[in-house]
Amino acid sequence: MPRSKRRATTDMASNDEERYTSKRQRNTTSSRRSSRLEETSFSQKRCLAWFREYTTPDDPDSLGPEGMEKFCEDIGVEPENVVMLVLAYKMQARQMGFFTKEEWLKGLSEMQCDSIQKLQYRLDYLRCLLSDQNTFKAIYRYAYDFARDKDQRSMDMETAKAMLQLLLGKHWPLYTQFSQFLDQSKYKVINKDQWCNILEFSRTIYNDLSNYDVDGAWPVMLDEFVEWLKAARTKSEIS
């Protein structure tokens, strides 16, 4: 065979091999991409199987206190952490310490989470929701019905103080004084109107109380708190 013809044949074989190699690499890359997509895409079946890890055969459609404790341990969040309240809000859970199957699927489907790792990745997103004033207000209002005893129309004071500490303790400069006021007050429960107005008070009234209108439409509880705080401050100045 002439040398030039041999070279042409060799070049054709080399080109064929390069095209084959390139095609094989593309197929491998596509396969890997598809595999990664399968790993990251949400699966309701996988989400439900994850839920079943925390339920019992006697009640497979309800995650209770023991399951909740294990769930919190798995995702690395204390049960008392405010992010658990935000998660419950996303699920629109009705009762503190419990998630139903429907609530679990609603919240986690919306966040596209079907594993511990995916939910852990979304924890910062849940915390960030608290920084938005409108969302925080919605979570705060939700917390009242979520935490109260469903047999009672009002929230008992012990629960109310725990929830106020969780939601306002770090952000409201007057929270410590308000908590002290509640400790010595006659109030044993907090109703929903009082609950909602406490948030509004914390957002709008200055720490020195200079913009508090005694003729405003605040609940009597908050009028009494202002009187108590002014008296405490006067006493402190005198002594």
From TrEMBL:
Keywords: Nucleus. InterPro entries: DCN-prot (IPR014764), DCN1-like_PONY (IPR042460), PONY_dom (IPR005176). One of its GO terms (cellular component) is nucleus. One of its GO terms (biological process) is protein neddylation. Its main location: nucleus. One of its GO terms (molecular function) is ubiquitin conjugating enzyme binding. Residues 42-230 form the DCUN1 domain. It comes from the Eukaryota. It is found in: Nucleus. Residues 1-39 are annotated as: Disordered. Neddylation of cullins play an essential role in the regulation of SCF-type complexes activity. This is Defective in cullin neddylation protein. It comes from Sitophilus oryzae (Rice weevil).
